[in-house]
Structure formats: C-alpha cells, structure tokens
Design brief:
- By secondary structure, this protein is α+β, with helices and mostly antiparallel strands.
- The protein has 4 domains: 77 residues, no CATH class; 119 residues, Beta-Lactamase, CATH 3.30.450; 97 residues, Helix Hairpins, CATH 1.10.287.130; 149 residues, Heat Shock Protein 90.
- Helix 8 packs parallel to helix 11.
- The protein starts with a helix and ends with a strand.
Length: 497
C-alpha cells in the first residue's frame, strides 16, 4: 500500500510531462511549418509584385528594336538568346517563354526539346487574370518545365506583324528553386534551432508551473488519503466542491464517511453480540443448573423420595427442558432471520382461521393464569397475502408475550380489521404496560423492560417479530401506557381473489 501511494503522484507527473512535451513538440513543428509556409508565400507575393511589369518592359525595350519573328515566320532565336543573357545577368532564376494567343509555347531558351516532363502549352486563364488586374493580385501560373507545379510569373500581351500572343516570364524558375531549397533548408534549421531553445526554456518554466498548479488539488487528495490509510479516520478533504476535481473529493469524503459508519456499526454489532452471548449464557445456565440439581437429587435420594416427590422433581425437570428447548429454538430462528437466510414464501391464507387456531392453542395457558383470551368478530373472514408460517410465529410470540405480562383476571384480545387494501392485526392486553422511555427499544434483541422479566423469558420474542415484519415490508408499532396495558399493531396486505 505504501509503495502504491508513493509512486502514484510521480507516475502521474511523468505522464503529464510526457503529454506536455509531445504537445510542445507538435506546436513547434506546426509553428515552423506555418511560419515557413507564410514566409514563402509572402516572399513569392513580394517578388511577383516587384516584377509585375517585367514582361511589359521586355516588350517595350526588345520588341521595338527587333521583331521576335523572322521574315520566314520563325522565332528570332538570337533575340531571345540576348534577352535571356541580359536577364540571367540580373536574375538567374528567371525563365522567359514566348506564347501564341492559344497558350502554345513558341520558344524558350531554357526549354529542352528532349525533356519529356516539359509541356508545350500554358494555361491562359491565370495569364489573362494577371493582365486584367495589372499584376496587383497574387496569382500563380503553370511551370512549363514542371506541369504539376504552380509558379509566380509576369506576363504581357504582344501584337507584332499580325501575330499576337504573350510574353510569359516565370519568376521562380528551376535554378531559383534549387537555390531557394538550399537556403530554405538552412532557414528552417536556424529557425528550428532557435525555436527549440526558446520553446524548451519557456516550456520548462510554464510546464513546471502548470503541472504544479494542476496537481495541487490531487496532492491534497493524495495526502488526505494517505492520512486516512494510516489510521486517521477523521481525515477529510476540506471544501471539496471548490476543488478542480470535486467529484473525486466528494467521492472520497462519502467513501470515508461510509467506512467509518460501517466500522461504528460493526463495533455496535460486536457489542450487542457479546451482550447477547452473555445473556443467553445466563439463561442457559439457570435451567441447566436446575436440571442438574434435581437429576442429582433423584440419583442420590431415589430410594428415600416418595412417589409424589419424584413426580414433582420430574415435572420441574421437564419444565426446564422445555425452557431450554424454547430458548435454543428462538436463538436458531433469530440467527437465521438476522443472517437473511429466511426467504418468505407468500401465499393467500385466512388470517382469521389462523387466529382461531392460536386462540385455541393458548386458551389453556390463559385459563391457568385466569386471563380472558378472545378474538374479536370471529365470524369475519379476512384473507391476507403473506408467509403463513412466519406470520403464525409472529402472532404466537405476541400472544405469548401479552399473556406473560398480564395479571390474573386480565384480558388479551386479538382484533382483525380490514382497512382498504390492508388488514390490521391488533394484539391488546391489560397488563402493566411499558414505560414510554423503554418503548423505542423493546424490539431490540434481548431488550427487556425490567430485570425481573428475565425470569419469564429470553427477550428474543419481539426481536423475532420485528425481523418477520421487515421480511413482509411492514412495521410493527406499540401503543402503551404504564398500568393501562399495551397494544401491538401491524398490517398485512389483504388478498383479493
């Protein structure tokens, strides 16, 4: 855990640095490419603007003194030889072409007849646009020596000896491209080196500040998580909503609250488990001690005890065996309910018939205690949809509990009342009642109203009832006043045939 915590932040910082470096390199390449492209276009546009009238000057100076065509109609090659010699003395990148009015190349000193890549025609559309705008706009034209390329040019129309066409001058010829390519490479090298140095310096500064700022909240969260993992369960991220990664900050705080809450519940459950074991041990020890005492008495004095005494001892022994059996059964049932190992099998059944059976079952016990036990409105048949065995167990515990805490000549009543789509079950007794401060805890396992009640039972009955109600998605409530009796009320869904 410690190793993972220590390596988390450096790994993230390395990834951020890598992403930042890749971003800077891509930006540098893009910057150099765009700068080179814009610089090249600017250079070409400037060159074309400066030499826009070059073709006009050629026509005015050369064609006035000598015709570009000989008497037989052929091109005056010596004239163009002198023309190219003069121009290349000034600019070796210039290429001059003589075109007819259809764009066919009539002659050029630089054009090699054996060059298979060269073309014999030039598109007139760019030339006409250039002439129309008088070279004020940036326009690219065909390169006769490289038909796939577009070059800056100067052009002007001529009309000599009833023949017309255009003087077409490529301002960035093959020689220009060769020299320009070499210089451009050097330019990019110098630009790239300078850009790399400046970018590295500024990127390092900006990257350090940016990564420090971006990971500030992450470092706070990491530190808090480390404190929590080292045992400081109160560690929380302060002002999580103001964090740049608020979703993680809030999630951690919620997770930490859940963990501490679960730990508190576990401690509480463990405490209750210990109390339960202690109380159950006490209840098991009492009948076992009585059993042992009477059995030893029977063994030691079997020849001196009368038949009546032996029968009395056996009845006491049998009674304590019943108590042990009942307690063990309650513990087994409650443990299954608490471990969620019981799944209710719901079915329609008559809660009225079940109530009749339970009243008959407890009639003898009630009569022995001089308690009146009855079912209100026994003739009404109420059908419910629930688990019949679990509901029977809950009613049995409630009726038994009511009889247990009702004084002689008292009364226990089981009432069934249809209310809409629910059937209300109410078990009321005229016993001593439950103090108000104790009513909120009577359904807790092994919680009893007073210490004297331990003589009458284990205290698991009502806890089992509560678990059964939870399995039926309902609740049980108690209405009680001291010395006025108690009412336990719960509802079950009515069954509609």
């Amino acid at each position: 855990m410690s190793k993972t915590t220590k390596t988390l932040t450096p790994k993230l910082v390395k990834k951020l640095w890598l992403a930042f470096i890749v971003l800077v390199v891509m930006m540098g390449i893009s910057y150099i490419s765009i700068t080179g492209y814009v610089a090249n276009m600017h250079h070409q546009e400037t060159t074309q603007q400066l030499n826009a009238e070059l073709a006009n000057h050629v026509i005015e100076e050369k064609f006035q003194n000598a015709s570009p065509f000989l008497a037989d109609g052929s091109v005056n090659k010596p004239l163009f030889g002198d023309l190219m010699h003069d121009m290349m003395a000034v600019n070796r990148g210039i290429e001059v072409y003589l075109l007819d009015d259809l764009g066919e190349i009539l002659y050029s000193v630089v054009l090699d007849p054996n060059d298979k890549n060269a073309t014999k025609n030039v598109s007139l559309a760019p030339i006409k646009s250039f002439v129309a705008t008088q070279g004020s706009e940036f326009i690219l034209g065909d390169d006769p020596r490289n038909p796939k390329a577009q070059k800056i040019f100067s052009a002007a129309p001529y009309s000599v000896d009833d023949r017309s066409g255009y003087v077409y001058i490529v301002l960035a010829g093959k020689k220009f491209q060769e020299v320009s390519g070499t210089l451009m490479g050097q330019y990019f090298a110098r630009l790239g080196l300078g850009a790399i140095i400046l970018t590295t310096v500024f990127a390092a500064i900006i990257g350090f500040l940016a990564i420090w700022f971006l990971t500030k909240n992450l470092r706070v969260i990491t530190s808090t998580v480390r404190q929590f993992s080292e045992g400081d369960l109160s560690a929380r991220i302060e002002n999580p909503d103001q964090s740049d990664i608020s979703i993680f900050a809030n999630s951690f705080n919620e997770m930490a609250d859940t963990i501490t809450g679960n730990l508190d519940k576990m401690q509480s459950v463990d405490l209750l488990r210990r109390e339960l074991i202690a109380n159950v041990s006490h209840d098991l020890r009492t009948p076992l001690a009585i059993l042992k005492g009477y059995i030893e008495t029977l063994q030691m004095k079997r020849n001196t005890l009368s038949d009546e005494e032996q029968q009395e001892y056996l009845e006491i022994t049998h009674s304590n065996v019943d108590k042990l059996s009942k307690l063990i059964n309650q513990l087994f049932q409650y443990s299954k309910l608490e471990a969620e190992q019981v799944t209710p099998v719901k079915e329609p059944f008559s809660i009225t018939e079940l109530s009749h059976d339970l009243i008959a079952k407890f009639k003898v016990l009630a009569t022995q205690k001089q308690i009146t036990l009855k079912l209100e409105e026994p003739e009404a048949n109420n059908m419910v949809f629930a688990d019949v065995s679990l509901v029977e167990r809950a009613l049995q515990n409630l009726i038994e509990n009511a009889i247990k805490y009702t004084d002689p000549k008292g009364k226990v009543t089981l009432a069934l009342l249809k209310k809409g789509d629910q059937v209300e079950i109410n078990i009321t007794d005229t016993g001593k009642g439950i103090p108000i401060k104790e009513q909120a805890f009577i359904f807790d396992r092994y919680k009893q109203v007073d210490e004297s009640a331990k003589k009458q039972g284990s205290g698991l009955g009502l806890a089992i009832v509560k678990k059964i109600m939870e399995l039926h998605d309902t609740t049980i409530t108690v209405l009680s006043k001291p010395r006025e009796g108690s009412s336990f009320i719960f509802n079950l869904p009515a069954y509609k045939a």
